[in-house]
Design a protein that fits this description.
single chain, 731 residues, mainly beta, five-stranded mixed sheet, globular
Length: 731
């Protein structure tokens, strides 16, 4: 393992040419990809590129919503869709970058070198249950590449109709790139400060009699060297998607993706005693010990889908998928502090900036998800009513296997990152293996009552069987639950392009009381049901599109009720329902286009509070790490004097966030400005696209988020000013 540079050492400046040389020396796959693209281009017909528009109408259907071919603009729900081109223009390379676009989406423990967490409408999404890939459930406890994704969909609100169990707030759906009708040859090279370099290739070709067969290849390789010190790594990805148009009525699609990412992760800072410190240098990495190891994510996913047209109005779809994840999770982890004066700070660092440091290692974590989904979609008429119907069954199987892990105290660190400790990789702690089977029956019906009035009915019935056991065979748990999650809405189109709606729905989360001796109900499983009401307005004119929604989400909470006598440590704590979190808010988004100008953005006002707790001091408190007000705006200007040049500016504003559950500490809000450009240069049959940008243009120093996680208050700084430039060549 390469030794990590200590942050107290001066970081030498590097030119882009050195970064490129380092990249190609370390990633020969990139050279092979570029060579293959050029060779294929020499034998291919002139390329007609995919038509991509980045306005709100670019992707009219949100597959995660579950309403088949009904456009998003006609459905009674809120969602955002981000195309591959928009992601490239903004420099987005990971899910956490989407917090720059949508006012309802914010950070929830996002850091360099680890997988992403999102908050939607104030609720943290569950990485195990709130993520989809082409509409099928996946585990998002891994690094998910964007290179072979055609778009990313964010569905906002409770998702009981779309998922068996899931946290309220919304769903994220990754949509995979498929073969295009016209040949596609595209290569891209990107440099990002301080020295990250990425090469990628995107190729698509149809062949065979009547162009019946299609094939698409995406490959990428990167040397990772972000502005954060001691965080160098690498990643690569290879994906192949194919289809066979057996006939005009039958389509078979298959795809395969494998990816690898290795990079040290970056832990958070924290409060110093009772004080929220001033924002620190965001380049400091507290995971900079000589023995620090990278987090390694290996993922393989494959799927097969058959679509069979049964008649002019009906089709059947069978979709199967499998996901295999392997992870080595390692970090020099700061947690709490033993102060020299004898005070122990369990959820923050010491006033003098020191903390207790632990050697955490959990190697060879294996997670597998297998899914089968069979559905029938179509239209039918019952008297004067027209029905758009979807019905199906989804069966999934999850198997998670772990090894013993290390979590050992190794000494004291400090927030300057200058203290060095020894390591202790002793595997001293048991882990927990988990299995789950679920079968979900679902039905959805959009009933056109009149030309303007539509009733929307959805229901999902889920049957769960879950088991867990410690890696040494101790503390087994097992439980099964069945439940039904309905969703109802009505919409009225007062003009063909303007819609008002009201909806109500349920979502369910499945929880298990920690299986430790202190709990009297250890290992007990339970269901908690969230409810959401929403009223919305959406519409468009020739130059303007808008969405406005008011929502009210109520989610049950639990608390540990202790009856422990002095010295008692077994069966004296009961976990039980205790009040709820209620999130009410208004969300507005829009896009305007006139002449050379395009403006888009949105705002959210969120009132999130705890209510109904047995502990009256909790009632009325705000959740940690949730801003009450967010504003995201982007302006694009096409320069008439230089055809093909577009200037882009982005403003992100978030209000203050609570740091501690008792609301005794908070971080102030911040405003960040990004600037970028896109320049398309036609060259015969080729198109060259130059993209350049500076994120955090004014190098704003601020605390970006304040997650209270693992019983500890963490603070993550806003990333330092970062320059990026890329060249895409469409051959």
């Amino acid at each position: 393992m390469a030794r990590h540079t200590h942050p107290s050492h001066a970081r030498s400046s590097r030119s882009p040419s050195i970064g490129l040389r380092s990249f190609f020396n370390r990633t020969p796959v990139a050279i092979a990809c570029f060579t293959a693209a050029q060779a294929w281009a020499q034998t291919a017909a002139p390329t007609q590129l995919e038509s991509v528009t980045v306005t709100g109408r670019a992707i009219p259907v949100v597959s995660a919503a579950g309403w088949g071919d009904i456009p998003l603009a006609k459905t009674p729900m809120q969602a955002s869709v981000y195309s591959a081109e928009r992601l490239k223009d903004s420099g987005a390379t990971r899910l956490s970058d989407l917090v720059n676009f949508d006012p309802a989406v914010s950070d929830a423990y996002n850091t360099e070198g680890y997988y992403d967490y999102l908050t939607i409408r104030g609720f943290v999404l569950d990485n195990r249950f709130n993520y989809l890939r082409d509409g099928l459930p996946i585990n998002a406890e891994t690094a998910i590449p964007f290179d072979n994704k055609s778009r990313i969909e964010i569905l906002k609100g409770t998702s009981g109709m779309q998922a068996g169990t899931s946290a309220p707030g919304g769903l994220v759906n990754y949509v995979v790139k498929r073969p295009t009708d016209a040949p596609l040859r595209s290569v891209m090279l990107e440099w990002r400060q301080a020295g990250s370099v990425t090469g990628s290739v995107d190729l698509s070709q149809r062949f065979g009699e009547g162009q019946a067969f299609g094939l698409r290849l995406n490959a990428a390789a990167a040397h990772l060297d972000p502005r954060v010190h001691s965080a160098e790594g690498n990643r690569n990805m290879l994906a192949v998607a194919g289809d066979w148009r057996v006939s005009s009525d039958t389509l078979i699609e298959a795809e395969f993706e494998t990816s690898h990412r290795s990079q040290p992760s970056v832990p958070g800072f924290s409060m110093l005693g009772n004080t929220v410190p001033k924002p620190v240098d965001p380049r400091i990495n507290l995971n900079n010990q000589p023995w620090s190891l990278p987090v390694v994510f290996d993922a393989t996913t494959a799927s097969l889908r058959l679509t069979q047209k049964l008649s002019a109005d009906w089709r059947a779809v069978a979709h199967v998928a499998t996901q295999h994840l392997r992870t080595d999770d390692r970090i020099a982890f700061p947690f709490g502090c033993s102060d020299p004066d004898g005070t122990y700070y369990a959820d923050r660092y010491c006033p003098n900036g020191t903390y207790d440091l632990y050697d955490f290692r959990s190697d060879d974590e294996r997670r597998r998800t297998d899914v089968v989904d069979v559905s029938l979609q179509g239209k039918l008429q019952t008297g004067p009513l027209t029905h758009s119907v979807t019905a199906g069954v989804l069966h999934s199987k999850v198997r998670n296997r772990f090894q013993m892990q290390a979590y050992n105290y190794v000494g004291t660190g400090n927030v300057a990152g200058t203290l060095v400790t020894g390591d202790d990789p002793t595997l001293s702690d048991q882990n927990t293996n988990r299995d789950e089977r679920s079968t979900e029956f679902y039905a959805r019906d959009a009933v056109a009552l009149t030309e303007q009035l539509t009733a929307w009915l959805g229901v999902r019935h889920s049957k769960l069987d879950r088991n867990s056991v410690r890696t040494d065979g101790s503390r087994p748990t097992s439980y099964g639950k069945s439940f039904t999650t309905p969703w109802l809405a009505t919409s009225y189109a007062f003009t063909p392009d303007q819609l008002v709606y009201a909806s109500w729905g349920k979502g369910v989360e499945s929880t298990v009381v920690p299986n430790t001796p202190v709990y009297a109900n250890a290992g007990a499983g339970s269901l908690s049901t969230s409810r959401q009401s929403e009223i919305g307005l959406k519409g468009s004119t020739e130059h303007f599109e808008w969405n406005l929604a008011w929502f009210d989400i109520k989610r049950p909470q639990t608390s540990d009720i202790s009856t422990c006598a002095e010295g008692q440590t077994t069966a004296c704590v009961t976990q039980q329902p205790d009040g709820s979190a209620r999130h009410r808010g208004v969300e507005a988004t829009g896009a305007f286009h006139e002449g050379a100008w395009t403006l888009r953005g949105g705002a959210q006002w969120l009132h999130a509070r705890i209510q109904g707790s047995q502990d009256a001091t909790k009632n009325g408190l705000q959740p940690t790490n949730v801003p009450a007000r967010t504003l995201k705006a982007q302006a694009l200007y096409d320069v008439a004097a230089l055809r093909g040049l577009q200037l882009q500016g982005t403003v992100v504003h978030e209000s203050s966030r609570m740091v501690l559950p008792d609301n005794s500490a908070s971080i102030p809000g911040y405003t960040r400005v990004d600037a970028a450009l896109r320049y398309e240069i036609p060259r015969g049959t080729q198109t060259w696209t130059l993209r350049a940008g500076i994120d955090n243009l004014f190098d704003k120093r601020a605390w970006r988020e304040s997650p209270y996680q693992f019983g500890h208050a963490y603070l993550f700084p806003l990333a330092a000013r970062t320059a990026r430039v890329s060249l895409q060549v469409d051959l």
